[in-house]
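Slack export, channel: ligand-projects

TW: morning all. Re-posting the request from yesterday since it got buried. We need the structure predicted with the small molecule present, not the apo form. The ligand is nicotinamide-adenine-dinucleotide; the SMILES is in the block with the sequence. No rush, but it would help planning for next week.
GE: picking it up
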Amino acid sequence: MSTLQDNTTAATNSSAVGQIGQDVLLEDAARAAAALGDVADALEGRTVLVSGGAGFLGAAMVDVLIHLNRTRFSRPVRAIVVDNFVTGVPARLQALAEDAHVEMINADVSRDFQIETPFHYAIHAAGIASPIIYRAKPLQTADVNVWGLRRMLELARAQSDLQGFLFFSTSEIYGDPDPASIPTREDYRGFVSCTGPRACYDESKRFGETLAVVYHQEFGFPIRSVRPFNVFGAGQRLDDGRIIPDLMSAAARNTPLVLHSDGRATRSFCYISDATAGFYRALLKGRPGEAYNIGNEHEVSIREVADIVAKLSGTPVTFESSQDPHYLTDNPQRRCPDLTKSRTDLEYMAHTPLHEGLGRTLKWAREVLAR
Ligand SMILES: NC(=O)c1ccc[n+]([C@@H]2O[C@H](COP(=O)([O-])OP(=O)(O)OC[C@H]3O[C@@H](n4cnc5c(N)ncnc54)[C@H](O)[C@@H]3O)[C@@H](O)[C@H]2O)c1
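GE: finished. pasting the full token output, ligand included:
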């Protein structure tokens, strides 16, 4: 088992970068814990393995555990974070690594890594989620969604007291849905290219969900999958290449907000603290073997989002073709979840209005870029 070292040591020792923007992150963890309520109590005194725990969603999951230890639990929950930092070393890493109840392991979960500490829950949040990065690393993208998941499943199967496993799938498994299937329910089968530039991501996530169902059928495995719909917020790397980080880094630098499309495609953006509560609800309350949409039902065009950020920041919106010839290939035109199943089974609700989430993200982005 390797521990946090190599390239990450230099980054974490260089300055107190982990503390920058920390107030928004801490508040978001408190908001997520409040939305979870006593559902969180199943985690008390347990150990949770989080792959991809240095990434945006994984770190937010770990932040909630840290918050619960500080405010609610008398027997602490422990987190084991496994990450190979393939998409870079995040600014918040130091804050995570310094917590007494968090163990950091620098390893590639797609390869032969072992873990000696027993655990009760496993969360497979490792992945390469940014279209710009997954097109540059298609094999690693497919590997972590298939081999990485398989390895996590086998590690979890060897545990004597496994309580639950959460697989981070994606709303991209629906591809570019037929308009009659928007809002999209979990039983929609998808309209996805298996050879296009996004296939390394979409198709490997689809196979990941197949593996999840097979483990449930064969071994009675307590696994749930979540399909996040465009989660955004504080903590998401500003150079990640996804639309909100792009808008936020431009706004925080007071430069124009550049759109590489006509802005008419729609998405349903979900603020991180709402989504994090939904992910834990799926892990702790979901029916084993099932998949759940987690997001926000408010559908907006990319242009509308850019206009809100423009209003918040006072920077103009401009249009420019992308240098990347595949920037828009197979890009879904609309995306909006039907959350009936998550509401019914998980009592999941998204509370944060888009403008509030964007305002919080901009505050965080300004603090991070001002350092
Ligand atoms: N953010 C979203 O809106 C969204 C939407 C749908 C699905 N997802 C899925 O949720 C998961 C987390 O997404 P995110 O937004 O936090 O992405 P992210 O890029 O911020 O974080 C992913 C983390 O996984 C790590 N990782 C990648 N490959 C690894 C490997 N082989 N071994 C160990 N660590 C590895 C990366 O270093 C990174 O820290 C991903 O699986 C992603 O596909 C995210």
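GE: first-pass observations. Residues 7-235+271-297+337-354 form a domain with the Rossmann fold fold (CATH 3.40.50.720). Confidence is low (pLDDT under 50) at residues 1-18.
TW: perfect, thank you
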